Amino acid sequence: MPRKQVIHPMVKLQQKVSSLVNSQIISPDDSIGKIALLFGSDWAFLKSELISFGFSMQDPVRDLLVVQKWDD
Description:
Order of helices and strands: HHHH
Shape: globular
Protein name: DUF4327 domain-containing protein
Number of strands: 0
Oligomer: single chain
Low-confidence stretches: none
Radius of gyration: 13 Å
C-alpha cells in the first residue's frame, strides 16, 4: 500500500498565503502578523511554528514565500 505523504503545516500555510497574495487580498510587503485574522483558531499553532523557524510577526509575507524547504 502506498503511504500517503503528509504535507508540512508550513507548506500548507505557504500555499494559502501565496494564494492570498495572488488574489491581491494581501501584499508581499504586508507583515506576517496581518494574516493572523485569516487563520482563526489555527493561528496560535502556525504562529508558534513560524517563530520556531525564526520568523517574527513584523517580517514581510514575502520572506515566508521564498522558503524552499521546511525542516523539522
